[in-house]
């Protein structure tokens, strides 16, 4: 018993000690870290390493109102004079729009660009030729210098490397002799290469005065924010228009490719910018990080040859650049002699996420593009960390980086025209200031070139941002009926059509009739009485394009476009509209057509035959977003619109080209094919334009004209159509919401 | 302590049947444990009481206790800020190092009082309340480190918020005396009121070597893009006045000008605008009859009528923020707080945090020269946009302007984003107010890609033991032209799959993966064996789908690679009587889900289902052995904001004769269970992500009067 007792006491004592030790033990390190430090401070007050603590009460606010400011300020010179004084002070390297640009030139005629006439005997590189013709083909072009807001030289300034064969001599004198030069005010100078061996400065070799620079490889040091534009370095083979699509075809999961990080390029043994490329071999592991350099360049590379050269050169020849480009997740873009290199655009197109290693390079179009969403901005000083950095990037992020490279490539880089237009649009945004694009418009589909802020600055007015804003399009539509034949009888199809459309529950306040007929307007009472008001607009010029004018009388997001002879029931209208609400950026409608490549004639063909796919939905019975009216009217060149007006044909094809080039997706056909056009021909005495045999041939011609202006074929085929869920199902018709749609 | 045994007379009563001796032991034991607990409890609380006393002494501590540092006249003066400084030239990135959290470490110098040789302080105010708040906020944040050797960024405790209270030369000398100054490398200064009369420079005049400047009121000529940070001028009213958020919408006034220090030329211009447009404009000035001071700051007057400031700002749609002598105005903060859209007239001004904030969505910037056109310009802005801007303005204030803490931490976050650009916050994170973040979607497969047909799809068949049926499915699917691979997920751990020789011979590779547990979620695992983007999930009893039907489904998926493309569609409905969601099956005119008994989808969604499914949905599905398809529909709809695509007329998978066997009661329990799933998932997602549509996809020539053999998909199946 005694023993037991002792054991018990011993046990309790032990338990007690353990308990104490446990809690105390936890306490010890805690107090060592936390309280002790605070204790120290409370003793000595402000020892270095002490945590900052709030000093309560005793301090005063830093300056609620600057009273002296108002008085001092009012006594000072007038702000108007101050504004004028700026011009003299901030010029040259400190130029900004406020100080070096004359806004008044742009006020009268808007943003118009003048290109100097080309002088005889003046040599010009192909690239510069492409730049100039892109401007001349754009909607900004004016041939009248008196109307111009921006001036572009016809002297080739692209290559300012004195050792280059493209170098234009005596540029300084030639420019000074230009009568409109005006010290370079409102001029923009394009440049790809500046400076030469050995230091490659960014000097152009002539005084640019007040002119803006659109320059490749520009450094942050020389870049004048919101004045210059950084453009990408592009090769002389870069297509003028159209441009190749990105190489990404799949979003494979997991998104990793064979290589993690690759580079293949020249290594400059000495001189400016050689450090980074010379150090690349440290990171190369010849497995998934493959960074290859060659010393071979120029004539006398052997002279500077270092110990690594032979080894590097051998390794370099083992790999194929293209193969690496397509099979790598990341592509290194290190600086060369100059800050930018061709690798950048190559990687972008190949959907190989660029890893920038070029400190101080103002990235292309940095003013508008958020490069963090499409590239990894590295630091040359941290080269050795690059592999671990790219490995740490989450696969979701890789997926989005990669898709963004493709979007940016196609939106701003894939042709000279896009690069030039982007440059001009950036400047236009600065000039107009109030109607200008927000960052979201530039950095999300379909990109800034298709998003015109003059239409609206509100994102919700465009068909592209509903999901991003978490909103829905307005749930009504406005119908526009295009009329070319006079109203003679009440049995004409247009009367039926009007009644049917007006009955739709989604029809907004207005049905608009566009009277493009030569005969005078019929009396008001001739139109049927409808529950919604009918507006009749007399087309001024009676041309085809007027059906796509951005009328102010369209209060809704959706437009239902109709021909006068369209046969459509209320149910069909309703159904098409509910479908459109799911696809607000596409054309949704009934009559579908298809295009094909005619390899015999080597041109595009157009067909209205029964096909298993389609790529166009004609605007005789289609719903689309109101914005496309604006885009059709302002974005498309006058040449195409005039062509459409002259032949009174193809406007629907052009609309399909436009929308598909924006969305890169096919339109959407709803329900079964209807042969209403054909049936109509028998009914109307006057031959409709569809009966004209030339009509079809013209449409073929149109297709090819349009494709050449767009630079490629934007139309995309679809193999499916959308029907009501219970369409033609063997179930009681009473169950079906859109039962009338099944009657052909 | 442990040995001190206590027992009271009540002891025996508690343990009556024990012998005394035993009682003693037990009581001893009991008291020992009790004491032990008390002791530990005391130790637990002991340090806390130390801390609180420490706090108390701190409260008593004042700025005047800070050590005094005398600056010799000859003390070195830093160079003026270098305008060409950029992160890659003037910032030592090695100090930040590589760290997995991608977060910079910020050190704050301890407070010192600097005086010149004759003992005059370098600043008339010393440490201001605002700067004190700012430093406290940094020290409470994740950025803070007290280890000077680990720091990447250094913040001096010398307050330079207001240049007017500073002695420029001495302040500069004080900065240079900081122990880690090193030419200002990696030092960050906060300044809100730069310059002084008469010229009012737009950046702090204190020479500061290479130090970064977080400044209010930068102009484009002093701001070093990508190096400095433009910050707002803090308005003290933010802390004093509480303005409840107002719903965006039209307000009583269209334009309001409430600033007091407006140049008379501009005031004249505003008066002219008021004459032209009358009541729509409200033009306020300071009240002449009120004495100067804090009270006058809260009142504004127009022709003798007194208005409360800043409350009056909430009564206007647009509020003018004109430059004063300085570009940055504290009024901007008040205006944003009131949810009024700022109309900023300050040429060359770098807007606060413009590096990350999209001001075009929250403000209107008008050149000073166009002040007279302000009314016309503002009138051209669509109403819906004004409302969005009002909401955006208020959100900017809440997130980035409302306190010194917000301003300070935003500045640090911006610098952090520069140092770790690959881990930076996104445009959406910076700019979308919570309500938009909640309702908007950013589809992870956002690029409009129609993948080529060639790679085909991988069919994933989940099976347990229905071998005969499985083999039939395999034979049927193998006829689909675009099938690239067949993957059988063998979910039966007790039984091995049949021998290789017994499997049907098909033209494409057939792989069997055996799972460790019989879970439904195994069907959605992103197996490495799936090498195609497109996955066809198919049950081992789906034999009724025709080859055309499946091929067509694949073609439709190619046009909608970010959606679920399936056959029978299902619908969710709100049951008003029960006040909850209900599951609806066949014969509806609408569709919001497709069954994954046979559905095409992107492999990415397998990855999402397995690793990113919110809440406990995954385990819930596995436990209930049901609703994995509903979960998948929720997941996809939630991340893409899009409805699934139902293809072909197919309404159910069961053959008509099977329904009779199933029986009505079984069907009903099934429906109840499925409804329960919808309610459960909706509560986990916190919203109902499913989208309802009224269409299905058919081949272009479906049911058209056209020779069947010329159609691509003649045999599209039945109901």
Automatic annotation (TrEMBL), chain A:
The keyword DNA-binding does not apply. InterPro entries: Exostosin (IPR004263), Exostosin_GT47 (IPR040911), GT64_dom (IPR015338), Nucleotide-diphossugar_trans (IPR029044). Its cofactor is Mn(2+). It holds the Pfam family Exostosin_GT47. It comes from the Eukaryota. Residues 108-393 form the Exostosin GT47 domain. One of its GO terms (biological process) is ossification. It is a single-pass type II membrane protein. GO terms for molecular function: glucuronosyl-N-acetylglucosaminyl-proteoglycan 4-alpha-N-acetylglucosaminyltransferase activity; metal ion binding; N-acetylglucosaminyl-proteoglycan 4-beta-glucuronosyltransferase activity. Pathway: Protein modification; protein glycosylation. Keywords: Disulfide bond, Endoplasmic reticulum, Glycoprotein, Glycosyltransferase, Manganese, Membrane, Metal-binding, Signal-anchor, Transferase, Transmembrane, Transmembrane helix. The keyword Disulfide bond applies. It is found in: Endoplasmic reticulum membrane. Belongs to the glycosyltransferase 47 family. Glycosyltransferase required for the biosynthesis of heparan-sulfate. This is Exostosin glycosyltransferase 1. It comes from Myripristis murdjan. The lineage of its organism: Eukaryota, Metazoa, Chordata, Craniata, Vertebrata. The gene is EXT1.
From TrEMBL, chain B:
One of its GO terms (biological process) is heparan sulfate proteoglycan biosynthetic process. It is a single-pass type II membrane protein. Belongs to the glycosyltransferase 47 family. The chain crosses the membrane at residues 24-46. It is found in: Endoplasmic reticulum membrane; Golgi apparatus, cis-Golgi network membrane. It catalyses: 3-O-{[(1->4)-beta-D-GlcA-(1->4)-alpha-D-GlcNAc](n)-(1->4)-beta-D-GlcA-(1->3)-beta-D-Gal-(1->3)-beta-D-Gal-(1->4)-beta-D-Xyl}-L-seryl-[protein] + UDP-N-acetyl-alpha-D-glucosamine = 3-O-{alpha-D-GlcNAc-[(1->4)-beta-D-GlcA-(1->4)-alpha-D-GlcNAc](n)-(1->4)-beta-D-GlcA-(1->3)-beta-D-Gal-(1->3)-beta-D-Gal-(1->4)-beta-D-Xyl}-L-seryl-[protein] + UDP + H(+). Residues 256-283 form a coiled coil. It is an enzyme of class 2 (transferase). Part of the heparan sulfate polymerase, a dimeric complex composed of EXT1 and EXT2. Could also form homooligomeric complexes. Interacts with NDST1. Interacts with GALNT5. Pathway: Protein modification; protein glycosylation. Keywords: Coiled coil, Disulfide bond, Endoplasmic reticulum, Glycoprotein, Glycosyltransferase, Golgi apparatus, Manganese, Membrane, Metal-binding, Signal-anchor, Transferase, Transmembrane, Transmembrane helix. The keyword Membrane applies. Residues 457-702 form the Glycosyl transferase domain. GO terms for molecular function: glucuronosyl-N-acetylglucosaminyl-proteoglycan 4-alpha-N-acetylglucosaminyltransferase activity; glucuronosyltransferase activity; metal ion binding. The gene is EXT2. Its cofactor is Mn(2+). Residues 101-381 form the Exostosin GT47 domain. GO terms for cellular component: endoplasmic reticulum membrane; Golgi apparatus. This is Exostosin-2. Its main location: endoplasmic reticulum.
């Amino acid at each position: 018993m005694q023993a037991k007792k002792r054991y018990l006491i011993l046990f309790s004592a032990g338990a007690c000690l353990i308990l104490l030790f446990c809690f105390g033990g936890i306490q010890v390190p805690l107090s060592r870290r936390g309280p002790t430090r605070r204790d120290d401070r409370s003793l000595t007050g402000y020892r270095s390493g002490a945590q900052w603590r709030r000093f309560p009460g005793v301090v005063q606010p830093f300056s609620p109102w600057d009273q002296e400011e108002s008085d001092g300020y009012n006594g000072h010179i007038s702000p108007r004079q101050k504004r004028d004084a700026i011009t003299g002070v901030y010029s040259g390297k400190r130029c900004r729009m406020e100080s070096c640009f004359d806004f008044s030139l742009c006020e009268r005629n808007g943003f118009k660009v003048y290109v100097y006439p080309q002088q005889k005997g003046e040599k010009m590189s192909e690239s510069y030729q492409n730049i100039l013709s892109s401007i001349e083909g754009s909607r900004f072009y004016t041939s009248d210098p008196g109307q111009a807001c921006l001036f572009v030289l016809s002297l080739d300034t692209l290559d300012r490397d004195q050792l280059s064969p493209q170098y234009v001599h005596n540029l300084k004198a030639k420019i000074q002799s230009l009568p409109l030069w005006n010290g370079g005010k409102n001029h923009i100078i394009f440049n790809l290469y500046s400076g030469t061996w050995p230091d490659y400065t960014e000097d152009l070799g002539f005084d640019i005065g007040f002119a803006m620079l659109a320059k490749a490889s520009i450094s942050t040091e020389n870049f004048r924010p919101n004045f210059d534009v950084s453009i990408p370095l592009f090769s002389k083979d870069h297509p003028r228009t159209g441009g190749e699509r990105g190489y990404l075809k799949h979003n494979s999961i997991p998104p990793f490719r064979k290589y993690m990080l690759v580079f293949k390029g020249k290594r400059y043994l000495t001189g400016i910018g050689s450090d980074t490329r010379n150090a690349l071999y440290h990171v190369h592991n010849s497995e998934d990080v493959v960074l290859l350099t060659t010393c071979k360049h120029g004539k006398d590379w052997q002279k500077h040859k270092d110990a690594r050269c032979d080894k590097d050169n051998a390794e370099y020849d083992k790999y194929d650049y293209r193969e690496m480009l397509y099979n790598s997740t990341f592509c290194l873009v290190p600086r060369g002699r100059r800050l930018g290199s061709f690798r950048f655009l190559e990687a972008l197109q190949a959907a190989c996420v660029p890893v920038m290693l070029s400190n101080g390079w103002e990235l292309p179009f940095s003013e508008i593009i958020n490069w963090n969403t499409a590239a990894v901005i590295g630091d040359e000083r941290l080269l050795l960390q690059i592999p671990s950095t790219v490995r740490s990037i989450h696969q979701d992020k890789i997926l989005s980086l990669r898709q963004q490279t493709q979007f940016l490539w196609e939106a701003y880089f894939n042709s000279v025209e896009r690069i030039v237009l982007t440059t001009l649009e950036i400047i236009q945004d600065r000039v107009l200031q109030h109607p200008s694009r927000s960052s979201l418009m530039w950095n999300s589909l379909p990109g800034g070139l298709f998003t015109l802020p003059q239409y609206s600055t509100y994102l919700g007015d465009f068909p592209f941002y509903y999901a991003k804003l978490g909103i829905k399009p307005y749930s009504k539509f406005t119908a526009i009926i295009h009329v070319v034949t006079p109203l003679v009888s009440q049995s004409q199809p247009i009367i039926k059509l009007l009644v049917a459309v007006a009955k739709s529950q989604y029809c907004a306040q207005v049905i608009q009739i566009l009277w493009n007929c030569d005969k005078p307007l019929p009396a008001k009472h001739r139109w049927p009485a409808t529950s919604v008001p009918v507006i009749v607009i007399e087309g001024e010029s009676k041309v085809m394009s007027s059906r796509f004018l951005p009328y102010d009388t369209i209060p809704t997001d959706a437009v239902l476009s109709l021909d006068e002879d369209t046969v459509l029931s209320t149910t069909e209208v309703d159904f098409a509209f509910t479908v459109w609400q799911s696809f607000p950026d596409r054309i949704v409608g009934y009559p579908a057509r298809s295009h094909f490549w005619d390899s015999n004639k080597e041109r595009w063909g157009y067909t209205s035959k029964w096909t298993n796919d389609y790529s166009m939905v004609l605007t005789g019975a289609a719903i689309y977003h109101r914005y496309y009216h604006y885009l059709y009217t302002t974005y498309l060149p006058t040449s195409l619109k005039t062509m459409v007006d002259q032949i009174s044909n193809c406007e629907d094809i052009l609309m399909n080209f436009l929308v598909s080039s924006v969305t890169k997706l096919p339109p959407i056909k709803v329900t079964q094919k209807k042969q209403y056009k054909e049936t109509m021909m028998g009914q109307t005495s006057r031959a409709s334009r569809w009966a004209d045999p030339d009509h079809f041939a013209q449409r073929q011609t149109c297709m090819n004209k349009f494709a050449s202006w767009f630079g490629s074929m934007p139309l995309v085929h679809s193999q499916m159509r959308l029907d009501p869920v219970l369409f033609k199902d063997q179930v009681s018709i009473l169950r079906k919401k859109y039962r009338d749609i099944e009657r052909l | 302590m442990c040995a001190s045994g206590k027992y009271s007379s009540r002891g025996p009563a508690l343990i009556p049947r024990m012998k005394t001796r035993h009682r003693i032991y037990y009581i001893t034991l009991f008291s020992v444990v009790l004491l032990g607990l008390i002791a530990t409890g005391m130790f637990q609380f002991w340090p806390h009481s130390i801390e609180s006393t420490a706090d108390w002494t701190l409260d008593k501590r004042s700025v005047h206790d800070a050590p005094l540092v005398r600056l010799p006249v000859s003390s070195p003066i830093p160079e003026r800020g270098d305008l060409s400084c950029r992160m890659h030239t003037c910032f030592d990135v090695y100090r930040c190092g590589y760290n997995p959290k991608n977060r910079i470490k910020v050190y704050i110098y301890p407070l010192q009082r600097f005086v010149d040789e004759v003992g005059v302080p370098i600043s008339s105010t010393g440490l201001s309340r605002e700067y004190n708040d700012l430093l406290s906020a940094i020290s409470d944040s994740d950025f803070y480190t007290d280890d000077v050797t680990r720091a990447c960024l250094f913040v001096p405790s010398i307050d330079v918020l207001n240049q007017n209270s500073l002695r420029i030369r001495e302040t500069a000398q004080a900065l240079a005396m900081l122990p880690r100054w090193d030419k200002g490398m990696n030092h960050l200064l906060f300044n809100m009121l730069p310059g002084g009369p008469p010229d009012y420079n737009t950046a702090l005049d204190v020479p500061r070597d290479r130090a970064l400047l977080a400044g209010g009121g930068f102009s484009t000529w002093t701001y070093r893009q990508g190096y400095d940070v433009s910050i707002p001028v803090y308005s003290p009213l933010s802390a004093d006045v509480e303005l409840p958020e107002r719903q965006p919408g039209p307000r009583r006034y269209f334009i309001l000008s409430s600033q007091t220090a407006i140049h008379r030329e501009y005031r004249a211009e505003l008066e002219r605008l008021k004459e032209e447009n009358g009541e729509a404009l409200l033009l306020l000035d300071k009240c002449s009859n009120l004495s100067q001071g804090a009270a006058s700051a809260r009142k504004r007057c127009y022709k003798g009528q007194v208005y409360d400031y800043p409350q009056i700002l909430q009564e206007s749609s647009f509020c003018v923020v004109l430059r004063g002598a300085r570009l940055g105005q504290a009024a901007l903060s008040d205006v944003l707080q009131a949810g009024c859209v700022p109309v900023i007239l300050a040429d060359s001004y770098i807007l606060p945090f413009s590096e990350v904030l999209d001001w075009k969505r929250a403000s209107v910037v008008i050149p000073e020269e166009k002040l007279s056109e302000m009314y016309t310009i503002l009138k051209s802005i669509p109403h819906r946009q004004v409302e969005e801007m009002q909401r955006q303005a208020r959100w900017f204030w809440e997130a980035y302007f409302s306190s010194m803490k917000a301003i300070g931490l935003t500045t640090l976050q911006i610098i952090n984003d520069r140092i770790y650009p690959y881990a930076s916050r996104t445009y959406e994170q910076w700019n979308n107010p919570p309500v938009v973040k909640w309702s908007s979607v950013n589809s992870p497969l956002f690029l409009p890609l129609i993948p080529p047909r060639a790679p085909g799809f991988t069919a994933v068949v989940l099976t347990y033991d229905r071998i005969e049926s499985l083999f039939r499915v395999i034979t049927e699917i193998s006829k689909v032209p675009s099938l690239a691979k067949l993957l059988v997920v063998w979910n039966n751990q007790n039984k091995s799959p049949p021998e290789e020789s017994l499997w049907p011979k098909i033209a494409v590779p057939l792989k069997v993966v055996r799972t460790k547990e019989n879970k439904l979620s195994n069907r959605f695992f992103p197996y490495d064996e799936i090498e195609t983007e497109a996955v066809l999930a198919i049950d081992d009893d789906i034999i009724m789908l025709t080859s055309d039907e499946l091929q067509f489904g694949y073609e439709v998926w190619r046009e909608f690679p970010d959606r679920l493309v399936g056959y029978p569609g299902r619908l969710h409905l709100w049951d008003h009587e029960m006040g909850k969601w209900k599951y609806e099956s066949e014969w509806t005119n609408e569709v919001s889900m497709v069954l994954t008994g046979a559905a095409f989808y992107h492999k990415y969604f397998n990855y999402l289902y397995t690793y990113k499914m919110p809440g406990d949905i995954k385990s819930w599905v596995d436990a209930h052995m049901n609703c994995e398809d509903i979960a998948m529909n929720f997941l996809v709809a939630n991340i893409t904001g899009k409805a699934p695509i139902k293809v072909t007329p197919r309404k159910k998978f069961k053959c008509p004769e099977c329904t009779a066997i199933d029986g009505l009661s079984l069907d009903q329990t099934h429906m109840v269970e499925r409804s329960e799933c919808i309610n459960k998932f909706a509560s986990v997602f916190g919203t109902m992500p499913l989208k309802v549509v009224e269409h299905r996809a058919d081949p272009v020539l479906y049911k058209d009067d056209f020779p069947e053999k010329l159609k691509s998909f003649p045999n599209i199946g039945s109901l």
